[in-house]
Amino acid sequence: MMVMENYFKALREKIGHDEIIMPGVAGVLFDATRTKVLLEKRGDGEVGWSLVAGMQNLGESSATTIIREFKEEAGIDVAVTALIGVDSNFHHTFPSGDQAQIPMTLYEVKQTGGELRADGDETLSLAFVPLADNPKMYNVQHQLVIEQLQRQVPYGWFF
Fold it and tell me: What is the reported pLDDT for 1?
């Protein structure tokens, strides 16, 4: 079990399902045509597509977090190429009933190594999905990202 999983488990034992702040990150990896983005089917019971994403660990920067998440969930090495945007007021209830406000930092990344593969745990499958297909995302925060990308909103947006 990872350090943050132990951290959140201990915290949840004290406060139950009450809302907490959990800093999150997500990454956008385009295909060569920049018309498709890498999306994943999650293994935690959530329904719909997800960006490669996760929670920032203690001692990590948001940029190192997204690099770690791509390696863990998709099997690839990435480099951060741009800050796309920030969504700081998203509230989510997980399938467990745990509630959190998840301020998300969103980066564009490029693949620098590794071979694309789902980890079979957090990520059940991976695919480059056309933005034009209006992929149904598992939460409104990730859906907002897809909508912003479809509209080609200049990087630097925030909510």
Answer: 41
